[in-house]
Amino acid sequence: MVLDRVPAVTVVSISAASYDGYEFPRALDSMACCGVRHVEPAFIVGYTEPFDEATFGAASARQHRAWLDASGLRCHAMSSHIDLGRADALAVFAGRMEFAAALGAQVINTNAAARENEARFMANIGPLADRAAALGLTIGLENPGNGEDNLINDAAEGLALIDRLGLPSVRLNYDPGNTVSHRPGRIDAAADAVRALPGCVHFHLKDVRQDASGWHFVVPGQGGINCGAIMDALAVRPDLPFAVELPLRMRRLPDAQPVRASEPVPLPVIEAAVRDCLAYVRRWVA
Q: In a designed cystine with 147, which of 28, 204, 210, 256 is the match (CB 3.0 to 4.6 A)?
């Protein structure tokens, strides 16, 4: 239910995952024409075009920052998911954090770790948190959507992990659209999202519609998640930035694994969806 209130002013981003298949400057220009003010760059295996660690080099960071400046858009958060329990996580994620900071981001979103990698995650997260703090970043740990046991399967586990770590530069980035495919039929994604908010530094607003072929991502309010209840909670937290994540080219199969269409979504379709996303959230926040 939309409350009768003066809209709060909140940092609202649109994830670049919506523009999978398009060059970053073209995506930025399109977003600017749609009225977007903040973009969340997305470098996520399975969600976006393939990339390697050279993508996050200093020269690439300068180019991406120049594209941002030319477009007039700003970057508050960046998504660049890896398992932080990987053996190479310290080096890989440090490079990605430096790239995010160069773009002006204050938050970098990633996964925590598969349950089996818990010990290495616990060894890695302290040094990564220190590096994040030195760069002026906060790490947002995101709940996954692939159905595989993780250190953060739901809000309760996420909040418990944040409390256990006690690191100011490590918080949550909750994603209700992931919850639906990660624990199908077992968790009310909207209610779980609201439970997670006290531990969040950032939030992903993502809606999904399910059919026999899997889960399809849709404009908030057009899927099976009670996004109105989430927005009611976000509207009274103008201090909590969030991004609308709408990976139109991707869906999740019935086993929750991601698959991308062979061709990019036509730009007019993306732009119509982005405008619908903005219209939806503006019912609650300015």
A: 256
Q: Which tokens hold the place of 251?
A: 């869906």
Q: Which pLDDT score, from 0 to 100, does residue 9 have?
A: 74
- Please name the helix (run of DSSP H) or strand (run of DSSP E) that holds residue 60, with its range, or none: helix 58-71
Bridge partners of 15, per DSSP, are 40
Catalogue the E-assigned strands of 59-150: 77-79, 107-111, 138-142
Residue 148 near residue 112, CB atoms below 8 Å: no
The distance from CA 243 to its chain's CA centroid, rounded to whole angstroms, is 7
Position 237 scores a pLDDT of 95
Residue of 151, 172, 144, 164 whose CA lies nearest to 240: 172
pLDDT in tens, 214-272: 999 999 999 999 999 999 999 999 999 999 999 999 999 999 999 999 999 999 999 99
Q: What does DSSP assign to residue 261?
A: -
Give SS3 for 1. Answer: coil
Q: 251 has which bridge partners?
A: 216, 259
pLDDT at 6: 45
pLDDT at 7: 53
In the chain, which residues have pLDDT < 50?
A: 1-4, 6
Give φ, ψ of 233 to 5 degrees: -75, -40
How distant is the alpha carbon of residue 152 from its chain centre?
Answer: 15
Which among 39, 49, 114 has a CA at the least distance from the CA of 69? 39
Q: Could you tell me which CATH number the domain at 12-281 has? A: 3.20.20.150
Q: CA nearest 74: which of 43, 105, 99?
A: 105
**Would you say 250 and 216 are in contact if contact means Cβ atoms under 8 Å apart?**
no
In the chain, beta strands by DSSP E = 12-15, 38-40, 77-79, 107-111, 138-142, 170-174, 200-205, 207-211, 214-218, 242-244, 250-252, 258-260
Cα–Cα distance measured from residue 142 to residue 112, given in angstroms and rounded to the nearest whole number = 7
Residue 233 parent element (H or E): helix 227-235
